[in-house]
Amino acid sequence: MRIGYFLSSEEYSPAELVEQARLAEQAGFEALWISDHYHPWNDEQGHSPFVWSMIGAISQACSLPVSTAVTCPTVRIHPAVIAQAAATSSVLLNGKFALGVGSGEALNEHVTGARWPSVDVREQMLEEAIGVLRELWTGEFVTHHGPHYTVEHARIYTRPEQPPPVYVSGFGPKSAALAGRIGDGYVSTMPDRELLQAFRDAGGAGKPAQAGYKVCWGTNDDTCIKTAHRLWANSGVPGELAQVLPSPRHFEQVSQLVTEDMTRGAIAYGDDKDRHIHAFQPFAEAGFDEIYIAQMGGAQPETSSAGFFDFYHDLLPSLRELGAG
After folding, report:
1. Strands 2-7 and 290-295
2. φ, ψ dihedrals at 57, nearest 5°
3. Choice among 11, 37, 39, 110 that is catalytic
4. Which one, of 299, 317, 318, lies nearest residue 10 by Cα?
5. Separation between Cα atoms, residue 278 and residue 263, nearest integer Å
6. Global pTM?
7. Residue 206 has what pLDDT?
8. Which of 105, 109, 123, 290 is catalytic?
9. What pLDDT sits at residue 228?
10. Sign of CA pseudo-dihedral 286, 288, 291, 296
């Protein structure tokens, strides 16, 4: 098992993300996830730098592998452009790059004024987009006229020796099966054995499965809960709302239904090692190959990133034992 750090682009400035990448490598994390958003989930988070700029900067600050978690290559950015961005990222990272993709959220994708499609259409678009990516990564000139995308005589010149693997997110049985059929790996944020099995049954057997989650390390439990609730109450929003709400304001409105007690019951917080181990354990037991952990509120003195990385430097051996079990 590989244990990595999850860089939350919605919460941290570009300089903070680069510094976290450097600290993660020093602490013993083995890889990085980085989110790809146009908007944060709410104004309290306050950031959303361009992920492709961030990957370039991170490639010069540490030597860890990087995966996007996840990029939507369907509406806001044409897959031909994503193909070039991912190829360059892989070159900068000496081939240690995986393109995590998903069908996206209206929060990020509506900004060009394009219609936000139904989930079935979004999955069709995702499948076609992945085909476009892979065709361009051959290095040949590509002309493609499909139901959703047109590519005219395009070629990617700066390419890695091997094309980046494409890991596909899936949060329901149908999307997990799609990931198994067309993906080189699977991405999730839930320790769901059934979805992981659906991925494997649909063609994902033997392919890597990644998962990530958030914690709030700190020396005061109540401060951690208040920080996590203030920044990430949106994580408690149920169902399909996260895919269809178009603005941070809407997430702020619906997040009013999520209480601090609900946050307390949903995350690992504070500096109790057992609490953090128990948060990791379901993902390990579900059978994920790579698990990524994010720190909420690391820009605050009471929940500093430096303290988180010191804490996890000591905790990682115990987590690896769970992963090997």
Report:
1. parallel
2. -65, -45
3. 37
4. 299
5. 16
6. 0.97
7. 97
8. 105
9. 97
10. negative
Left, alpha or beta for 239 (phi > 0: left; psi -120 to 50: alpha)? left
> 51, 36 in Cβ contact below 8 A?
yes
Whether 37 is a known active-site residue: answer: yes
Asked whether 87 and 157 are in contact (CB, 8 A), the reply is no
Q: Which domains does the chain have, with CATH numbers?
A: 2-224+269-324 (3.20.20.30)
Handedness of CA 78, 82, 84, 85 (dihedral sign): positive
pLDDT, position 316: 98
Name residues whose C-beta falls within 8 Å of residue 258's C-beta, 6 or more positions apart in sequence: 229, 233, 234, 236, 237
**Residues 64, 32: contact at Cβ < 8 Å?**
yes
Cβ neighbors of 201 (< 8 A, separation 6 or more) are 177, 180
Residue-level pLDDT at 238: 73
Q: What pLDDT sits at residue 27? A: 98
Kindly compute the dihedral angle of the four CA atoms of residues 174, 178, 179, 183, in this order, to the nearest 10 degrees.
Answer: 180
Is the peptide bond preceding residue 70 cis, with omega within 30 degrees of 0?
yes
**AA letter at 282:** P
CA–CA distance, 180 with 205 (Å, rounded to integer): 8
Q: Which residues of the chain have pLDDT under 50?
A: none
